[in-house]
Design brief:
single chain, 380 residues, alpha+beta, MetI-like fold, four-stranded antiparallel sheet, 4 strands, elongated
Length: 380
């Protein structure tokens, strides 16, 4: 009996050693990917992010109408309800026509669904011509109505009769691109300056750390507001877009720079750095070829976790009138147009951009947490 127990213990020990050897044989990237796949919430966040970027990337294809087109007879129209069943059973999706009525008690125009008038939804039908990703012009839309005399608004319209599906998707393109470009600037500045500070030390380190402390001493949102308000009022929408990107990136780099500095200081005495110095490698080569790549996993995690802050930053500035300006639109601009209780009571569908902001922020947070756990060598 004792011999059997001893044999089982030896077998388990050998299996454990085999697993350790396999893990050691795997590269760091493969180990991170294996850990990341085990985190289902993080994988779900990644899939949601890919789906959202796919929608906003092909916004003109998924939008039934141009984002700034006004439909004069469909102002503040509630969302259409898509139906799949009629008196004949399951069939092609359709919507019922809304008819306007004037409420004599509230003196408001309301829309009533007329179930006698149906309009069928068709996919990959033709609409207004647009440019697809800057490559070619086409008029193929993902969905629409065959009857041009009536309009479909799956998420309703605003006070000017503009389709909310088109505005939310095109606004998401601006908001999400600003967040990515802002994070890119933050990563470049934070990685380079943090690495230089940790590698050289001395006066350079002291100077950069004082700059970082100075920038971190300001509250982030008031600093964003002050810098955005300093942008010239006569600038075009494109210039303001570029200015907001630079502001978000320039304000966000100090925290990453300080973290990268700490990592580089820990690697400065490692054997591979000393070997590179002994072989006559230049400082630039050591920084670019050795130090930054070995800090890359941490940089990616921090950058992913910073994207939600960038989304909120753009939305906050645009909501306060200091960010993106019409005719360009973003999720913050859409929320700026409904910043009153009356809109919440009468046109609640205009707050739908908030749902997209929440979903995007949660997805990036889940993804960042998963990457952080996967990059931690001591996590299970």
């Amino acid at each position: 009996m004792d011999s059997d127990l001893t044999y089982e213990k030896k077998q388990k020990t050998s299996e454990t050693e085999d697993k350790k050897e396999k893990n050691e044989a795997l590269s760091q990237k493969k180990l991170m990917w294996r850990k990341f796949k085990r985190n289902r919430v993080a994988v779900l966040g990644l899939l949601v992010i890919i789906f959202i970027y796919f929608l906003v990337g092909f916004a003109n294809f998924f939008s039934p109408y141009p984002q700034n087109k006004r439909h004069e007879y469909y102002t503040n129209k509630p969302p259409h309800i898509v139906n799949f069943w009629d008196e004949n059973g399951l069939g092609r999706p359709f919507i019922y026509e809304y008819e306007q009525e004037y409420d004599m008690e509230t003196f408001q125009t309301t829309y009533v669904q007329n179930e006698e008038k149906k309009h069928y939804i068709y996919f990959f039908n033709r609409g207004e011509e647009y440019n697809l990703l800057g490559f070619f012009n086409t008029d193929i839309k993902f969905f629409g109505l065959e009857d041009d005399e009536y309009r479909i608004f799956l998420l309703g319209t605003d006070r000017f009769g503009r389709d909310m599906v088109s505005r939310i998707l095109n606004g998401g393109r601006i908001s999400l691109s600003i967040s990515l470009l802002g994070v890119l600037i933050m990563v470049v500045l934070g990685s380079l300056l943090g690495t230089v500070s940790g590698y050289y030390g001395g006066i350079i380190d002291d100077l950069l750390q004082r700059v970082i402390e100075f920038l971190l001493s300001f509250p982030r949102i008031p600093l964003w507001m002050a810098l955005s308000a300093a942008l010239p009022s006569d600038w075009s929408s494109v210039r303001i877009y570029i200015g907001i990107v630079i502001i978000l990136g320039a304000v966000g780099w100090p925290r990453l720079g300080r973290q990268v500095r700490a990592i580089v200081m820990g690697m400065s005495d490692d054997e591979f750095v000393q070997a590179a110095k002994s072989s006559g490698a230049s400082d630039f080569y050591i920084i670019v070829r050795h130090l930054i790549p070995n800090s890359l996993s941490h940089i990616i995690v921090v950058a992913t976790l910073q994207v939600p802050g960038m989304i909120l930053g753009e939305a906050s500035l645009s909501f306060l009138g200091l960010g993106i300006q019409p005719p360009m639109t973003s999720w913050g601009v859409l929320l700026q147009e409904v910043q009153n209780v009356r809109s919440l009571a009468l046109t609640p569908w205009l707050f739908l951009p908030t749902i997209f902001i929440i979903i995007s922020i949660l997805s990036f947070n889940f993804l960042g947490d998963g990457l952080r756990d996967a990059a931690d060598p001591f996590s299970n």
